[in-house]
Amino acid sequence: MSLPMLALAVSFLLSAVDAGVTPLVEELPPGAPAGAEAAAPRAPVVRRVTVDLRRLGPELRALAQEASRSGARVLVELGAAWCEPCRALDAAFARESNRALLAAWWLVEVDVDALPSGPVLGRSVHAVPSLVRLDRSGRPEAWLHGAALPTDSAARLD
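Request: output the structure for the sequence above.
Response:
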């Protein structure tokens, strides 16, 4: 089964991690605005949504249904502030060059340290980051886990 959104997230992470460093200046493609036009504030690259962690399941179901009505889908990132691969993934989600690819997705970032102990979305989470693609009713549809995400997961997605 093809998992295009998760493959997309993996490719983002690969581009951020494989380079070793995040470029200080992102090259502009030909025809891109420059000067004052480029300095105008823009909306975030990906729509980030906050949910009540005490009601994670019901909140995600409602959010997925709302996103579906607007033609969007939901991706949940399970991470932690201390997690270096999580920060690399966050940087990839914020890259301007990924705007078009992320336009139809809502991102929910969940700090696993803030969750009560026990399963998350029906599974035990033993590694972060974990990415969970929700179906349109809010049920987990596909998972990718842990630090192996950037190097070991891409081949399994096709």
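Residues 1-6, 12-26, 151-158 have pLDDT under 50 and may be disordered.
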